[in-house]
Structures are given as structure tokens and as C-alpha cells.
Amino acid sequence: MTNVDSLAGLIILALQIVAIAGAGFALFHAVRQPAEAFPAVDKLTKPVWLGILVAALLVLLLLGAVGLLGIIAVVAVCVYLVDVRPRVEEVQRPRW
User: Fold this and answer.
1) CA atoms 60, 65, 25, 93: torsion sign
2) Threshold 0.70, pTM exceeds
3) What is the pLDDT of residues 40-63, one digit of tens each?
């Protein structure tokens, strides 16, 4: 898929590994959250996010992070990790 003989090839391979690991972590996190937490923070429902993250992980595994679909997959994972994940965790913390 990529030429790892050059420095650019190694960098692309490293980015793809990071993207796949991030997608796997995001999917694992989403699976473990209660379904009620997503609408409670005005986000898409849990099944929708699971579908998005599964699709993103499959795209990253099959096509890589380089290319239009790969970039869309990386953006979807980043939106989950940066926006949805902190809000879902915040709503589950007890308030003192």
C-alpha cells in the first residue's frame, strides 16, 4: 500500500497506524458508553456514532488515511474524540 523505503513512506505509515489506533480507541469508548448519554448532551445517538466509527475504521483499514475517504474518516474520528467523548464523559460524572 505504501512505500516504506523512503522517509515520506515511513511518515505516512506512522500516520496510518495512529489513525487506525485512534479509530479503534474511539469505537471502544463509544461501545462502553450508555446509550442515554449521547442524547443527553445533544449529540447523535449511540447507534449512529457506532456506525460512523465502524465505517471510519473500515475505511482506514482498507484504504488508508491518505485520500479523500481516509481524510473524511480521520475527521469523523477526531470529531468524536474532541467533541463527543468529553461531553459524554462529563454528563456521567457526579456533580458535587
Assistant:
1) negative
2) yes
3) 899 999 999 999 999 999 999 999
User: What distance in Å separates the CA atoms of residue 84 and residue 43, rounded to the nearest whole number?
Assistant: 7
pLDDT of residue 3 exceeding 80: no
* Side-chain-side CA neighbours of residue 53 (13 Å): 25
Residue 91 cell numbers, joined: 454528563
Residue 34: DSSP 8-state: -
Rounded to whole angstroms, the Cα distance separating 23 from 78 reads: 9
Q: Which residues contact 84 (CB under 8 A, 6 or more apart)?
A: 38, 41, 43, 44, 49
